[in-house]
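ingest -> validate -> predict -> emit
validate: passed (alphabet ok, no gaps, 172 aa)
predict: started
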Amino acid sequence: MASFEYKMNIDMQGLYWLYGIAKELGKYHIKIGVLSGSKMNRNDGKTNAEIGMKHEFGSRSERIPRRSFLVDPLTVWHADKIIQFLKDKHEDIIMKALFDFRFKGFDKPIKRIYTKLGMFCKQIIDDAFASNGFGQWLPLSKYTIKKKGHSRILIETEQLRRSITFRTDKGS
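emit:
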């Protein structure tokens, strides 16, 4: 009676590295916006966080329409660009992370990935300010234009725009 036997050894070390990278990626996050500790001071007694919140969500009581410069640009109008950015960088990121993990541990390469992503998102937000929310923001009212003397939206002093930063953190 004939028999056939085949033995195969699989080196799973590479898969453990990929699993480790995926696990570590989930421990990090990016905070982006007018973060606590912002050193930008205003002349009018309001904080950039207050001004930003009024415009991001709108204010019925102050007749300020919603002019999203964070949520919509990052999740609605340009989510596809962020996904493509990650896809384009995916192979390079994994290879560097594998190398760095093998010799240095995870923290530095993972933080570097999130820092690059934060810089990319910050550019999208800057572009939102420069383009009146990619053409989606409602124009200023005639009253507001007369009061301000111009029709530029959210860039009169650029304090709000300059106060937007990002931070890469590990943990919740």
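The two ends are 62 Å apart (CA to CA).
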